[in-house]
Write a structure and sequence with these properties.
Blueprint: H1 7-25, H2 32-39, H3 43-50, H4 53-73, H5 80-89, H6 96-112, H7 116-140, H8 145-167, H9 173-186
């Protein structure tokens, strides 16, 4: 009797291996051979699921964004303020796994400079986060769309800066979270 293969699980295992390779060697250090070794599969298996290195890298980028969005979806029943705080704080690395995830995100940010497909995925994700922040700010208080957009951009810029400081261990995650909470409270 043939084994039943969960193709989505296999794809996910390969993407996780990709992220580990990116965290260790950067995107430029990614090769199908490195990812295959990390995933414990053949290069042919990776080519079967993704085709090319670029398709794999792009799939990893999309999966990173989808995973963040999935985490946000889990806050669907929360108040607008709590959802806004989640958007702002989800990127702050709180442990080694979070630090790895953020380092992979920044590797994709660097890749987006010369890769239009990666740039498009990241730009859409950032626009989506900005639009959602505007919506949440307006749901929490009566303000114009223009004012909410200004506040959303300020909050997102603060979150980006704090994330970078936590990533380079210049600031503790707890300190960054307290600052974000205070700023969200002001909005």
């Amino acid at each position: 009797m043939p084994r039943v293969v969960d193709h989505e699980e296999r794809r996910w295992e390969i993407v996780l291996a990709l992220w580990l390779v990116i965290a260790q060697h950067g995107i430029e250090g990614v090769s199908l051979r490195h990812v295959a070794a990390e995933a414990g599969v053949s290069m042919g298996r990776i080519q079967h699921y993704f085709g090319t290195k670029h398709a794999l890298v792009l799939a990893g980028c999309t999966a990173l964004v989808d995973r963040a969005y999935g985490g946000y979806q889990e806050t669907a029943d929360a108040a607008p303020r709590e959802r806004l705080l989640h958007v702002m704080s989800q990127q702050i690395p709180r442990d080694d796994a979070g630090r790895m995830g953020v380092s992979v995100w920044y590797a994709y940010v660097a890749k987006s400079i010369n890769d239009a497909a990666v740039r498009q995925v990241l730009a859409e994700a950032r626009r989506g986060a900005e639009d959602e922040c505007v919506r949440l700010i307006r749901a929490a208080r009566d303000t114009s769309a223009e004012e909410a957009l200004t506040q959303a951009r300020r909050l997102l810029a603060l979150a980006d800066g704090l994330t970078l400081r936590v990533l380079v261990r210049d600031l503790e995650a707890a300190e960054a979270l307290v600052m974000l909470e205070a700023e969200v409270g002001r909005v």
